[in-house]
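Me: I hope this is not a bother. Any chance you could explain this protein sequence and its structure tokens? It all follows right here:
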Amino acid sequence: MGKTTAYFQCRTCEDKPSFDDAKTVFDHLRQEHGFPPGEKIEGTRQMVSHMDGKNFSASTYCLQFGSVLIYQYMHTERGNHAP
């Protein structure tokens, strides 16, 4: 496999803020959406789309925490030798 980049976006907030990692997402859920500090945050993850290209793959997931929707976008570059 090659280099994977990912980012998250809160689809519930009006300004649709983006985040670079899961820790920042959980901080956002606690600060902006009222999830209690120190408690485990549980949710569901569902694939929205996936695409394979000659030298890349791209996936989008919908993460749902109560009524809050977070989208996770992932893109993986593959070398020319990849099938």
Observations:
- The mean pLDDT is 92.
